[in-house]
């Protein structure tokens, strides 16, 4: 689908300048939508390589895999919304190059778009598992197309091996188990979700998976993956000699930022496109938001890169507000959520920095909220099955950090 709103440009919109947004994920789409809600009257072109109109990605590992929602039900907006709001939506369109000196973007078909402001919301790609390179039958989950392909594989109800015990890997495992598949999760660390939760909170969630029939194996180093064309499926072997046979193998070992365009354009890149607290890159008029952006950690020092839907959405909105004329820093507290076997896990801030914590409820029953503090200051919040309480505690954390 491709919409070129210039053929039906509403008279109420003037076109004194042009903002080009590369990437139709949540960061790019939110930037476009926010520009309009903030009263921006310039031309907006939203360009994305995926053929689909902007859609919500969180359901990919859950409802889409389980077949409880179809692709059209996860669209961010109705198809006509974009042109009605004078946003030129170019789906299925690849950007070939960015020229920051000429302030222009060249599309794969040779068309050149000049810009006053450019937003690079190019997102990230699944980190490729070295042992899976060239092996048929290994799935990665990132797009609606890949989710649809994986859902078809899971529909066979064969055994599944998920490599990676992070939030996405465990969501895939829970969805596969809900479909009746036998599921094994292989995690290299000593526990799943080690980057997100302390052991005493991760353990009850591991127990939840075991209770629902998902086997979680930690400390596993994958040595090789073999495809069996005659009998179908694959064998995943660990360095200690143990092996798992599966009809479907899913690699969920993190993501890498898509920075090729930025790097070719001469922008500063280091584990993402380097930006300041307002999303500004090293080139004038060029911004970055979402998974591809590497931003300063204004609370704790250093730099960080967000990899979650909520943070990408907030970054897109902040960049758009800055472009519209109100200098707006990125939100300072990252936050994310996950749904596993019907239990909602929400995380805000940096629990790993805490020196003390306060527990409400029972973590063993997966019904609790935890406030993490460092020297008396709230640095993080975790909630299980308590979304309303999480919203209130997140505001407490924001207030403690002087955030929004």
TrEMBL record:
SUPFAM superfamilies per UniProt: FAD/NAD(P)-binding domain (SSF51905), FAD/NAD-linked reductases, dimerisation (C-terminal) domain (SSF55424)
Coiled coil region boundaries: none
Domain FAD/NAD(P)-binding positions: 18-316
Domain of life: Bacteria
Cofactor(s), names only, from the UniProt record: FAD
Residue ranges occupied by any Reductase C-terminal domain in the UniProt entry: 335-397
Keywords recorded for this protein, A-Z: FAD, Flavoprotein, Oxidoreductase
Entry's transmembrane regions: none
Entry-linked InterPro entries: FAD-oxidoreductase/Apoptosis, FAD/NAD-bd_sf, FAD/NAD-binding_dom, FAD/NAD-linked_Rdtase_dimer_sf, Reductase_C
One Pfam family cited in the UniProt record for this chain: Reductase_C
Gene3D superfamilies named in the record: 3.30.390.30, FAD/NAD(P)-binding domain
Designated name of the protein: FAD-dependent oxidoreductase
Protein species of origin: Catenulispora yoronensis
């Amino acid at each position: 689908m491709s919409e070129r709103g210039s053929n039906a440009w509403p008279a109420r919109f003037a076109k004194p300048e042009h903002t080009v947004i590369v990437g139709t994920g949540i960061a790019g789409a939110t930037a476009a939508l926010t520009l309009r809600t903030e009263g921006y009257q310039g031309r907006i072109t939203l360009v994305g390589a995926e053929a689909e109109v902007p859609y919500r990605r969180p359901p990919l590992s859950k409802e889409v895999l389980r077949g409880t929602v179809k692709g059209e039900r996860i669209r961010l907006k109705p198809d006509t919304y974009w042109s009605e709001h004078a946003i030129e939506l170019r789906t299925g369109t690849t950007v070939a190059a960015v020229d920051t000196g000429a302030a222009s973007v060249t599309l794969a078909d040779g068309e050149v778009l000049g810009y006053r402001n450019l937003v690079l919301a190019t997102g990230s790609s699944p980190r490729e598992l070295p042992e899976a390179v060239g092996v048929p039958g290994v799935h990665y989950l990132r797009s609606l197309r890949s989710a649809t392909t994986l859902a078809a594989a899971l529909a066979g109800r064969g055994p599944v091996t998920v490599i990676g015990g992070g939030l996405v890997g465990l969501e895939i495992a829970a969805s596969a188990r809900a479909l009746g598949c036998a599921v094994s999760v292989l995690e290299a660390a000593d526990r799943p979700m080690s980057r997100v939760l302390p052991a005493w909170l991760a353990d009850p969630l591991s127990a939840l998976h075991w209770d629902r029939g998902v086997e979680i194996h930690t400390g596993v180093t994958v040595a090789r993956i073999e495809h069996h064309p005659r009998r179908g499926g694959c064998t995943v072997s660990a360095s200690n000699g143990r092996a798992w046979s599966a009809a479907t193998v899913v690699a969920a070992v993190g993501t890498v930022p898509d920075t090729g365009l930025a790097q070719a354009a001469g922008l500063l890149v280091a584990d993402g496109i380097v930006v300041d607290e307002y999303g500004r890159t090293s080139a004038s008029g060029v911004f970055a938001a979402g998974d591809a952006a590497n931003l300063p950690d204004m609370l704790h020092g250093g730099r960080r890169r967000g990899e979650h839907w909520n943070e990408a959405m907030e970054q897109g909105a902040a960049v758009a507000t800055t472009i519209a004329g109100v200098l707006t820093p990125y939100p300072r507290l990252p936050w994310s959520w996950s749904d596993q076997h019907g239990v909602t896990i929400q995380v805000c801030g940096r629990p790993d920095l805490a020196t003390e914590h306060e527990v409400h409820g029972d973590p063993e029953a997966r019904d609790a909220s935890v406030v993490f503090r460092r020297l008396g200051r709230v640095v993080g919040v975790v909630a299980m099955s308590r979304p309303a309480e999480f919203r209130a505690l997140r505001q407490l954390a924001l207030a403690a950090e002087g955030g929004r």
